[in-house]
Amino acid sequence: MAEAGLSTTESALENQKIGGLQIRVAALCALIQMCDGYDVGSIGWAVPSLTHAWDLPPSAFSLAFLWSNLGVLVGALASGPIGDRFGRKPLLLASVAIFGLASLASAFAGSLGVLSALRFFTGLGIAGAFTGTTALTGDYTPQRLRATMIMVTFTGAPVGGFVGSLIVAELLRHYTWPVIFVLGGAFPLVLLLVIVVWLPESPRFLAHTPNLSARQQALLARLGIAQARVESHPVDIATENPVKMLFGQGYALQTVLLWIIFFCSLINL
User: Fold this and answer.
1) Are the CB atoms for 138 and 160 separated by under 8 Å?
2) Whole-angstrom distance, CA of residue 244 vs CA of residue 248
């Protein structure tokens, strides 16, 4: 029964045309990625000013970068299972709220220790947002266009970093370092209100969720998906240890290669 429900859902999604709904999802996910890109770079833009404000050598701020990356590590490991269990939209709402509030609070940090702790939560939210946007974009895109659409949304991150650096360079002519984190927190928190209203939940998740609202039922009907009459559980939830699964079923080589690529990418960053 579950297999039939899943087959029907996948068949409906694979036959979708790219229209206004799919473009809206991709655009909102790209905006979230832009916030991610900005907040990844914010600590690097702030350090030159902070070395003078706090009378610390640049090397001391490696602690803040370390905790930021630890946050990314924890967020990357936790966000997938969380998105599977509670939905992509709640994951994205929580992630954007976390890194938005952490960035805003960083503007009032008075020491390196406080800033490093806040960078951990910033990294935590950034990783969750990367994971959530990728999964949600993929859920609204047929397989033949999925990689392309996901990469389109991923352009938001470098755009956010590039445009953000230009804005910060201009702002620092008139303001001090806290403005970097105020901007990095204010925009995500405003965007949070937008995605609450305009960002839909994953149709795969909704198809196996009981007691849907009228709006959620209308969304499934719009996509031509019948709600599966099965026990409530997310479609993509792992049935065993998810990390162990990455090294089974012929995925071991691909997993190791991807880990090496991302390791090198973070080292370079």
Assistant:
1) no
2) 7
Q: Per the structure block, which two tokens stand in for 53? A: 């404000």
Amino acid identity of residue 90, one-letter, is: P
Nearest C-alpha neighbor of 135 from the set 55, 213, 236: 236
Residue 257 burial (CB count, 10 A): 10
Rounded to two decimals, what is the model's pTM? 0.88
Please give the pLDDT value at position 10: 80
**For residues 203 and 142, what is the distance between their CA atoms, to the nearest angstrom?**
12
Give the whole-angstrom CA distance, residue 247 versus residue 201: 30
pLDDT confidence band for 228 (50 / 70 / 90)? low
Rounded-to-integer distance, Cα 125 and Cα 150, Å: 19
Separation in Å, CA 92 to CA 63, 95, 213? 27, 5, 20
33-84: pLDDT as tens digits: 999 999 999 999 999 999 999 999 999 999 999 999 999 999 998 998 899 8
Instruction: Write out the two tokens for 163.
Output: 């445009």
pLDDT band with cut points at 50, 70 and 90 for residue 238: low
Reading the block at residue 60, the tokens are 């001391």
Dist CA 155 CA 32 (whole Å)? 11
Q: Which has the closest alpha carbon to 102: 59, 54, 68, 62?
A: 68
The count of other CB atoms within 10 Å of the CB of residue 69 is 17
Other CB atoms within 10 Å distance of the CB of residue 86: 13
3-class DSSP state of 135: helix
Q: Are 89 and 185 in contact (CB under 8 A)?
A: no
How many CB atoms are located within 10 Å of the residue 258 CB? Answer: 12
